[in-house]
Every structure is written in structure tokens, then in C-alpha cells.
Amino acid sequence: MKEYQNLGELLNSMKSGTSISGGKLRITNKELFRDQLIDELVFNLSITEDASVKESCQWIIWEAVREFGIFPSSIQEFYEARGRDEFDGVTVPAINLRGFTYDTAQMVIKTGLKNESKAFIFEIAKSEIGYTFQSPAEYVSVCLAAAIKTGYIGPLFIQGDHFQVKAKNYKENAEAEITGLKNLIKEAIDAGFYNIDIDSSTVVDLSKPTIKEQQEDNYSICAQLTAYIRQIQPKGITVSVGGEIGEVGTKNSTPEELTAFMEGYKETLSQLGSDLEGLSKISVQTGTSHGGVVLPDGSIADVKLDFNTLEELSKIAREKYGMSGAVQHGASTLPDEAFHRFPETETSEVHLATGFQNIIYESKALPAELKANIYEWLKTNCAADRKEGQTEEQFIYKTRKKGFGPFKKEFWGLASEIKQAIREELGAKFDFLFKKLGADNTQLLIEKYINMQAVPKEMPQALASMTGPSSGCGCGCGGGCN
Description:
The protein is of the alpha/beta class. It has helices at residues 7-14, 30-47, 51-67, 76-83, 101-114, 126-131, 136-150, 167-172, 174-191, 211-232, 255-272, 307-321, 341-344, 354-362, 368-381, 392-399, 408-412, 416-436, 443-449, 461-467; strands at residues 18-21, 24-27, 70-73, 92-96, 121-125, 154-164, 195-199, 240-244, 281-284, 326-328, 349-352. The strands form two sheets. The chain has an eight-stranded parallel β-barrel, surrounded by five helices. A two-stranded antiparallel ribbon has the order 1-2. Strand 7 (195-199), helix 10 (211-232) and strand 8 (240-244) form a beta-alpha-beta unit. The two termini are 23 Å apart. Residues 469-482 have low confidence and may be disordered.
């Protein structure tokens, strides 16, 4: 893969398939762009330390997708229709891509194309943004690049998962913690995240006497951040916002908690603006934990998921509050026989992450040397994460998610046959999940409800300075041609 040393090299490479002038991009050779240039762009934006190259690659991809019929979108209208009971039996998979992102995203989209599905979401959590070395702008760019590469046409849903309040920080300085979340939300929306899950369930205080008082900080923060999202969302787009009433890994949620949260949320949001659009879904706790419960030998303990509670909470969310239903987190490590229950219980959305990470790390195709190097790095650099009494297997299992960022370039450098073998393993799992979740055959439903809105972006200053009238030879090459 060609690595650009500077912006001039990028522009010189792009001139064979694009025209850039006057702040505009035009694709002059779509076949070349899809077959070769998109790979170069996404590789460079992922590994370069040159900010001008990274930002320019991101801008080119963002502007290019419209010419390929791809639109970063909000799933809001689809979820509103579910809240009106206009369809049923669909649970949307929301897939966290921690690493091997370009290849994995392609397999998700190819699975969607194979199953005539457009009801899937790419997402990344606040914590994952940090340890996977994927900024919101990079993450969006890689997902959009995968859509171009696979020939996808239509809306693409990209979501901020667990934009979470850290309880300790909030207790010490509430204003600073909320300001930090607002900054992250703005960065994400500016990048193309038109779906945001607010997680302020971390500040629920079960020591308070009434359920509403227990949920008060949670619903107040969620309403405040919803109002902020409505202020900054792009014109013509209603960002889909999710709330959360039960922190994953804690006690199971109850109908009383859902009602107390929603009544307080609605009341608070109406005080912030009488016509503000509220939540499209609500995350609940029914027995899972992120990554599963790891046994001493590194295997995952069986989980007893409370599907009755999930069904009841989904029904209340739809019938009483017009939302799409309840959201289940931490589902990817559940046994295969559990997944058909989600559409049966009218679960709106399930979040899936660790299971795909496990496929990558446990693939026979992954070079043993690379895996050994990652694990040694974890032992040295993540030693503080080791819990008392953890076995080596438990420690590695819980921390190997942090290996994707530092070894991003090594994953990019894997041989094509290795990548293909891992992609095929991932593809089989995605195909299984799409079918079991009822996300297959949803293309027409998505096309019926989703509003696709173009959101052009201003060209980065460094790129603009090299593609203007006074730039080099004037051909748009940035002075790189001879």
C-alpha cells in the first residue's frame, strides 16, 4: 500500500481519479477510485502522523461518498416508525469495531448486501475511541470507505456508543465532566455520528429513598445533553439519541425505573425547550456484562438473560413513550441459541463487540508472532489493569481489546490471504446474526423511512492552500507533477 509522505504526494496520487478545485471534489474515474484510491486514502488516514494528510484523506472520503450514493444518516425515522408499530420483528445490530476496522466494516456491509439489509449500525464507545486510537473523524472515514469499496448505496448509520458520564469525575466537578461530554458530542456530530447514546446511568444513586430520586441525576443529564445535541445537529437531520437507565453489569432494570426516568426526562427536556425531540430508544440491564464474565481458564461463563424483563421494558418504551423499544448491551458473547429471542421480544437494538474481537484474536490465520507481541505489550503496558486474583488468561482476555491501537499498523500490514481468511470468519458470524436478529430483508423498510441528507464539509485549510488558483502548476497536483 502506498504511504504518502506529504500532502503533495497525496494530491499527485489522487489526480488520476479525482478533480479538486474551488473547494469541491469531483470523482473523474469511479472504477479507479473504488479499486485503488480508496484503499490508499483509508490506509493513510489510519496510520499517518501528518495532520494535513490525515484531514485531507478524511475530507476526500466524506465528499466522495455522495457521488457513490452513500449518506451518513440518523436512524431516527426508522425508530419512530417502530414506535408507531408500523413494523415489528427487527432488532438492529449495533457493531463496535475496535480494530481491523476497514476489513471488518466491509464484511458487515457485504453481509448486509447479501441479506438485503440496511438495518445495521457501526458504533464506537467513548472509551474505545481512546484505546483503539480511532478518533470520531477517523472512524467515520473508515466506515464510509468500506461502503465505497463494497459498492453500498444508501444511508449508513454511525453511532457514538456509551458517551458516558464518569461518576467519580462528576462527583468531583460536575460542570467539567458535562463540558467534556459536550465537546466529545460536538466532535462526533461534526465527524458524521448522527446517532448518539448518552450513558448517564453511572450516576444513578440507589441509596436515595424513591426511584425517581435515584434516577434524577441520570435523567437530568440525559435531557441536558439531548438539548445540546438538538442545538448543534446539522440542518435537516434529527440525531437519534438513546438514554440508559441501568448500568451494564449491575442489577436488572425494572418497569418502575423506566417510568421514573422517562417522566423525569420528559419534564426536564420540556423545560429546556417545548418542541425538542426526545429519545428514540432506551438501554436497560437484563443480566449481561461487557465482554462477558471471564472464568479462570479464559472461557466465558453462561449468562442467564432476563428476556421477560426485556420484552416488558420494550413494550412500555413503545406504547407509553413512542420509542422504538429497549436496547440490550453486552450481547456478542451470548450463546448462539439466544439471539432469535431478541426480535421475538421486540428488542429494538443489540450492541455487539467482544465476540468479533475474539474471532480476530483466535483466528488460526492470525500470525502467532503478532499475537504474542500484542500479549507481551499488554503485560508490560497494561499491568495496572490486572485485578487481584486474576489468572493470566483472564487478564489477557479482558485487556486484549487495548492491543488494536498500538498495533494498528501491524494489522494493516497483514498479508492479503490472512486478511481474507479472517474476513470470512467474521462474515459467517455476521450472516448468522443478521438472520437471527431479523435484520435481513430490511432494505425496503430503511429506504421507506430514512431521510438521506447531504452534509458537505469545508475543505481543510492545508488542502485548500494547495488546490487554489495559485497552487503549483494549477492542475490540482499540489506541485507534485513533473
